[in-house]
């Protein structure tokens, strides 16, 4: 890894960073290492590297590998040796940030996510939007993912081939970019048309007030205005990608249970036939029917989704 002075006196980024990938990747950046905050990097053509550079720092690399939307950089030195070049979007444009473990330390909650099944579901089928470039894989969870185009959101739940719940995933940069461009407002309107929907952000809310290129007050006001306009679509900050992935899994599992036990949900999800009754029977009626069919049901409380499904199948033509 080589860092040199940027010979352009008008540039606000005084350093050039060069990595030995492809024909050489060159970035303009504001410092020689992300010690206190993630550094914005501006990619430039390789030929912008000066013929006679003023070298500031030159360090041997142990590893420099691109993995998905990031480049993992490991230097051959004892301290300040691990960093990551992250490719993302801000205000609808491509952006690159250089971060180190220290700059991400506060965003790491140091927790271990549970492996217990959400809502006791043996296997949950989650639809991943075909446009999602680096999707969640839900490792360690009982999830079967299917790729297909979604009308809105990035991760969805289908019931009878109809989208009933969806989660829109956002990095902080993408959240700010879509908010300032107006795209987030349209996305929220589409999500609000679903029975259940949410937006999950892979960062802390406090990071909003550390964002440098957009006034924090404008971001905070914009998010607040959207929550007032669309109260049924929560915007949830989950600190890290790992926790956002876990929250998405639990949310869609809860939505899966909701569709099976809530009368209102069933009315909204499955259109009633013109000759069908306008409402389903009470829980007590279904409990009595189930016992008559030899099913084991509790004396009180909610019935399992399987019991409701059995009742609907038995009365589908009635």
UniProtKB/TrEMBL annotation:
Q: What's one Pfam family here?
A: Lsr2_DNA-bd
Keyword field contains DNA-binding: yes
Give UniProt keywords alphabetically: DNA-binding
Which GO terms of the molecular function aspect are on file? Answer: acyltransferase activity; DNA binding; nuclease activity
Q: Where is the signal peptide?
A: none
- Show where the ERCC4 domain sits: 125-205
Record protein name field: Lsr2 family protein
Give the GO terms filed under biological process for this record: DNA metabolic process
Per the record, the domain of life is: Bacteria
